[in-house]
């Protein structure tokens, strides 16, 4: 019997490309849930590139209503071990990040109810063996992922490695499948200089900085996208897609105008008030802010989304002979920086030094005593400079002895003091680097994202577009070589999961 593979497709071309090239090399039945704007639907309904046995268009099934079956939702929570309000209140559209529409409690629950009924029907009908999905970032795809996982469906999730220009395919974000410890991993005996050279050559921070630079420099694309939206688009999503509720053109125009003006004032405040040099004579603990809204906070660390409070908790917990250095995230500029009131609240904390986003992360890591991160790359990068770290969420590098994970905020003072006494085990770090290299592939996901957004989505500023089948075929063919490397990994993973399942059954 053929494997049945379910794909979650959206405006991210990556997963459709995976379906395309996997269908050429692996005999299976393919199905898809397609979450896209109206215009893009034309492509999926006419494309002959991938033969999906059946597809469901997400927004055709999800329209909030007044009547809610709370008993059904309660049964879903018990059946799959879920907390639906945890998902909903950390959904950027349902809470504080939505500037266009305020969803009522009933609307949110209605959306969740319709999603659960749709997902259960699909999974009961198809009974897939595998789910291929990008890193989940919104409640709708993460809910589907959680239900699939609860049903024992093997997950093939594409995610960026903690080292730049590489990706990993795993059942959970930022995890390596079937890795419980490093005991059987052979060290390559790299010294500290060799490890630092590796980090510099595979810096995820540098990769994301490149993305930021290219994104904000594409003014022509932004102008073209704006013209298309305001003068050519019929804006049909406003009625059919709850994600577009409230996005009337005049409202979008004034909000965008406001942010283009306020961004300059925020940037001026940052330049005038945030510290641009590190005090070489000061002991400090380093906490980099996450960009907001961001998946790491909203999905990965749902109880630590208030970064001001997190900073306060850390500031209360550090030894008296240390300061807390907080740094703004450089890519927050893409979101127009944060409100000035946010910066003022952190600046008011007496033992906190607020660093300018332009300060080099390497310079900070060389001089700090300890790093603390909710769930960022800094936690692993600091180890390359022999500085231990504390994390708030489950991370792959949490397996290392020089990394501590917070399970209760009351632990923080104790963990900080014990972590300050730790020495980074370079042999252990070398093993971790080795295992990541062995379980990741050379694939520049950010570079591919830039390629397809520039090709089809006006640099990422507008996704409700028409894409011709011919243009997509040409684009996919141009990227065939790099995707064949990815497909090798996917096929290997499919066999790995099947072997693990068979060994478990026996």
Structure explained in plain terms:
The strands form two sheets. A seven-stranded mixed sheet has the order 3-2-1-4-5-6-13, with helices on both faces. The chain has a six-stranded parallel sheet with strand order 9-8-7-10-11-12, with helices on both faces. The protein folds into two domains: 3-179 and 439-505, Rossmann fold (3-Layer(aba) Sandwich); 199-216 and 248-429, Rossmann fold. With 506 residues, it is of the alpha/beta class. Helices cover 49% and strands 12% of the residues. It has helices spanning 13-25, 38-46, 58-61, 70-80, 84-89, 105-126, 139-150, 192-201, 204-216, 219-232, 237-240, 249-273, 295-300, 307-317, 340-347, 361-367, 378-381, 412-420, 426-438, 445-456, 469-478, 480-505, and strands at 3-9, 28-34, 54-57, 130-134, 154-160, 166-170, 284-288, 323-327, 352-355, 370-373, 389-391, 403-405, 440-442. The mean pLDDT is 93.
Give the key terms:
single chain, six-stranded parallel β-sheet, alpha/beta, 506 residues, 49% helix, seven-stranded mixed β-sheet, Rossmann fold, globular, 13 strands
Topology:
Layout: E1 3-9, H1 13-25, E2 28-34, H2 38-46, E3 54-57, H3 58-61, H4 70-80, H5 84-89, H6 105-126, E4 130-134, H7 139-150, E5 154-160, E6 166-170, H8 192-201, H9 204-216, H10 219-232, H11 237-240, H12 249-273, E7 284-288, H13 295-300, H14 307-317, E8 323-327, H15 340-347, E9 352-355, H16 361-367, E10 370-373, H17 378-381, E11 389-391, E12 403-405, H18 412-420, H19 426-438, E13 440-442, H20 445-456, H21 469-478, H22 480-505
Parallel strand pairs: 1-2, 1-4, 2-3, 4-5, 7-8, 7-10, 8-9, 10-11, 11-12
Antiparallel strand pairs: 5-6, 6-13
């Amino acid at each position: 019997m053929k494997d049945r593979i379910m794909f979650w497709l959206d405006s991210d071309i990556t997963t459709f490309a995976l379906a395309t090239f996997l269908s050429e090399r692996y005999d299976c039945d393919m199905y898809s849930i397609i979450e896209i704007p109206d215009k893009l639907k034309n492509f999926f309904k006419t494309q002959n590139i991938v033969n999906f046995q059946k597809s469901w268009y997400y927004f055709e099934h999800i329209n909030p209503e007044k009547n809610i079956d709370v008993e059904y939702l309660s049964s879903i929570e018990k059946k799959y071990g879920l907390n639906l309000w945890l998902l909903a209140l950390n959904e950027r559209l349902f809470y504080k990040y939505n500037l266009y529409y305020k969803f009522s409690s009933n609307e949110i629950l209605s959306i969740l109810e319709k999603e659960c009924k749709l997902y259960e029907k699909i999974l009961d009908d198809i009974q897939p063996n595998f789910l291929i999905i990008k890193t989940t970032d919104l409640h709708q795809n993460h809910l589907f992922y959680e239900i699939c996982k609860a049903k024992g469906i093997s997950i093939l999730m594409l995610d960026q490695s903690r080292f730049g220009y590489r990706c990993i395919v795993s059942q959970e974000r930022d995890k390596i499948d079937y890795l419980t410890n490093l005991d059987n991993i052979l060290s390559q005996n790299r010294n500290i200089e060799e490890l630092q050279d590796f980090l510099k050559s595979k810096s995820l921070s540098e990769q994301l900085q490149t993305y930021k630079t290219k994104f904000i420099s594409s003014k022509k694309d932004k102008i073209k996208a704006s013209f298309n939206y305001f003068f050519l688009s019929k804006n049909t999503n406003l009625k059919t897609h709850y994600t577009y509720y409230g996005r009337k053109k005049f409202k979008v125009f004034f909000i965008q105008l406001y942010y283009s003006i306020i961004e300059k004032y925020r940037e001026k405040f940052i330049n005038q008030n945030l510290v641009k040099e590190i005090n070489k004579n000061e002991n400090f603990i380093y906490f980099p802010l996450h960009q907001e809204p961001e998946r790491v906070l909203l999905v990965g660390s749902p109880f630590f989304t208030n970064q001001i409070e997190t900073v306060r908790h850390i500031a209360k917990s550090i030894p008296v002979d240390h300061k807390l250095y907080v740094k703004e995230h450089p890519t927050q500029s893409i979101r127009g920086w944060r409100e000035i009131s946010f910066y003022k609240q952190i600046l008011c904390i007496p033992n906190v030094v607020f660093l300018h986003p332009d300060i080099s992360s390497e310079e900070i890591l060389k001089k700090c005593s300890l790093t603390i991160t909710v769930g960022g790359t800094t936690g692993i990068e600091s180890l390359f400079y022999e500085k231990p770290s504390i994390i708030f969420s489950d991370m792959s590098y949490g397996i290392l002895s020089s990394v501590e994970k917070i399970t209760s905020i009351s632990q923080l003072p104790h963990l900080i003091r014990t972590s300050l006494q730790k020495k980074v085990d370079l042999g252990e770090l070398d093993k971790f680097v080795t295992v990541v290299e062995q379980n990741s592939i050379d694939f520049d996901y950010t570079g591919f994202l830039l390629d397809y957004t520039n090709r089809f989505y006006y640099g990422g500023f507008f996704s409700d577009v028409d894409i011709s089948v011919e243009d997509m075929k040409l684009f996919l063919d141009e990227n065939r070589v790099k995707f064949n490397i990815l497909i090798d990994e996917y096929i290997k993973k499919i066999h790995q999961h099947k072997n693990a399942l068979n060994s478990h059954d026996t």
